[in-house]
Amino acid sequence: MAGPITAGVDGTDESLAALDWAAREALRRGLPLRLLQVWRFAPHEGLEGADAETQSGWVAHALAEVAEGVRARYPALDVRADAREGEAADTLVEAAAGSELLVLGSRGYGPVVGFLLGSVGQRVIAGAGRPVVLVRSGDRPAGEAAGREVVVGQQGDPDDSLDALRFAFATAAARGATVRAVRAWSLPPVFAYSPASLKLLDEAGGLEPYESRALTDALRPFRAEFPEVPVVEHVELGSAGQVLLSVASRAQLMVVGRRASRTAVGARIGSVAHGVLHHAECPVAVVPHG
Predict the structure, then answer these.
(1) Which domain of life is it from (predicted)?
(2) Tens of pLDDT along 20-29?
(3) Residues 6+ apart with CB under 8 A from 19
(4) DSSP string of 13-39, one letter each residue
(5) What's the CA gap between 225 and 187, in Å, rounded?
(6) Nearest partner of 146 among 230, 234, 211, 265, judged by Cα
(7) How many domains does the chain have?
(8) How far apart are CA 288 and CA 38, in angstroms?
(9) How far is CA 37 from each of CA 93, 102, 190, rounded to the nearest angstrom?
(10) Which residues contact residue 235 at a Cβ distance below 8 angstroms, ignoring those fewer than 6 apart?
(11) What b/e string do you get for 5-28 counting C-beta neighbours within 10 Å, with b at 16 or more?
(12) Could you give the angle at the alpha carbon of 64 between the alpha carbons of 59 and 70, nearest 5°?
């Protein structure tokens, strides 16, 4: 059984935009919406009686008001509110495990700066085992208008993008949208050629036809599973991040896969996901592989 769509709430404009996005998506998918507010006890010397229990009551009251506002705007939606004390990133990652997807707000300052992905957001995206959607503070329902596509990146072998493609097709089916599947390719260095790779390229008729066939093969099972979803196959020479951003203006949602890696300075989410998150104007879904 599918879990709820969970929206992180902290009272900021960007979290409220994410909450509205999550509410609309929950209605489309027929899922409950869970509002999650993570808080930490902070002693206030100037406020008498501001102990942990009192602060917990403040948080619960504020969250209840937000939940009532959501119910008023979306009366058909099953809305649940949950306040938890703890460390933000770890608590959100834990909540994502039982959710269909996790939706967070991200402050944006226009198409050049795009998303500002703080340390909490990066840790959540790197650690979550479920898709995480980042929504900018300026997001509006008009961005989901007919004609705007769900854009998804595909790379490598068919198995390498299975989860991202499945998420993109399911989302497009719920929205009545078109999927634009993007595969970027680049010229390999001379030393990368081998007799086996040259044979494959000769059989395909060249590099671009080979890449086109690889994309078609990756999409075949999803075309069969979601026959009602129109599909545009987009193969272009260039880096994956650049090619995805070149079509972002027509996207109502951008979907990228990620393989998180651990380094001495913390978790990294990959250059393609990082670039799209920082520069796309539309909401971005980051889907973990496997």
Answers:
(1) Bacteria
(2) 999 999 999 9
(3) 7, 9, 35, 66, 70, 103, 105
(4) HHHHHHHHHHHHHHHHHT--EEEEEEE
(5) 33
(6) 230
(7) 2
(8) 23
(9) 13, 13, 53
(10) 182, 183, 184, 185, 208, 211, 212, 215
(11) bbbbbbeeebbbbbbbbbbbbbbe
(12) 130
**Same structural domain, 132 and 163:** no
Residue 285 CA: distances (Å) to CA of 18, 76, 219: 12, 25, 19
Last residue of some domain: 87, 113, 139? 139
Q: Under 8 Å CB-to-CB from 135, ≥6 apart: which residues?
A: 14, 17, 18, 21, 103, 104, 105, 106, 283
First-to-last C-alpha distance (Å) of the chain: 19
Helices 13-29 and 52-73, interaxial angle, to 10°?
Answer: 50
How far, CA to CA in Å, does 250 sit from each of 61, 105, 147, 193, 282?
A: 40, 21, 8, 36, 9
86 and 194 fall within a common domain: no
Q: Give the pTM.
A: 0.86
Tell me: do 162 and 36 sit in the same domain. no
At 140-181, the pLDDT tens digits run 888 888 889 999 999 988 888 999 999 999 999 999 999 999
Burial class (CB in 10 A: 0-12, 13-18, 19+), 286: buried
The pLDDT tens digits of the residues spanning 13-60 come to: 888 999 999 999 999 999 999 999 988 777 665 555 567 777 788 888
Contacts of 166 (CB under 8 A, 6+ apart): 222
Which residue carries 């539309």 as its tokens? 282
56: Cβ–Cβ under 8 A, 6 or more apart, which residues? 39, 83, 85
Residues 27 and 47 in one domain: yes
The answer to whether 135 and 103 have CB atoms below 8 angstroms apart is: yes
